[in-house]
Every structure is written in structure tokens, then in C-alpha cells.
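At this stage, I put together a protein sequence along with its fold in C-alpha cell form, as given directly below:
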Amino acid sequence: MLRLLVAITFLFGVLPAQATEAGWALLRNGGQVVLMRHAIAPGNGDPANFDIEKCGTQRNLSERGRLQARRIGALVEARAAPVEKVLASRYCRTRDTATQAFGAGLVEAFPALDLPLNESTMEAQTAEIMERINDYTGSGNLFLVTHLEVIEALIGASAREGEAIILSRGADSLAVAARIKFN
């Protein structure tokens, strides 16, 4: 009941999600793969003492970013978009976005969604992500929470923090079927 109340509050709040009804219809029907950039995390890059196992050494979500992530989950739930699985980069800002939005029980770490170390690792990561995307046949939606650089490598386009991109899948390529901006 409390989640429904929060969802309704977010739906009618001053910051509505921007998307076409066709995008929401795709998510309600399920079976979609959605690329999502992590929520608001101020700054650029990570500190020199970065350690993937320690959130204190990384760029993290701001309070506004945590609110944005919870809002994403509330809107997805309120719009009756079934979430089957959530894969997230191991970085704290992506993992926290995923767990704040969808709950820890649905979230699984997927290292291929991490920031690439160099161009050759990006190629390997992209291939692994593409395999996972192309193999997905679930009835709910699969969310992949990642970073701008990974999204750009996969679709050749940018995404705002907290933006969800519903993919249109081809044999060896991806296209944008719809976007949902959670700001």
C-alpha cells in the first residue's frame, strides 16, 4: 500500500517521466530489454584510489540520484511494467540505482556492464552484453543498468542519467525503440 501511495505521488509530482505511451505499452507487454544509465551521480570519473569493492572510493549517487532511482521503480510499478531481472555493473552507482529502483532480490551483478578498461576490453564486453541481450526470451522485462560509455558502445547514442532506453533487437544490431526520461 505504501509503495502504491509513493508511486501515485511520483506520477503526479512536478517531475513527470517523459516517454511516449507506446514506450510504456512496450514495457507493459513485457519481453523487452532496457538499457538504463545509472541515476544522478555528481562529478566525472572515479578517484585515483578507486576500488570496485569499496563504495567510498567511487563516485556515488547523490541524494537526488537515490530519489530518482526510487522514483524510477515506483513509476515502472505504477505503469504495470513487469520486471523479470535486473543486471547491473559492479560499480556502486549502478548497483545502487538498480536496488533502489527494483529491490535487491532482482539485481544481479554483470561485470560486462562495468566501465571498460580499454578499447579491447570494451569489444569483449560488448560482445558478452550482445549475447545476453540476444538470448533473452523472458516474459517480463530485462533491465541492464550501466554507464554512458557502455550505452554509447552498444547503440551509438547518448543517454541522460536515469534514462531508460527500450531496445529493438536485430540479429547483430540494436536500435532505440523508445526512451523514458526520469528527471
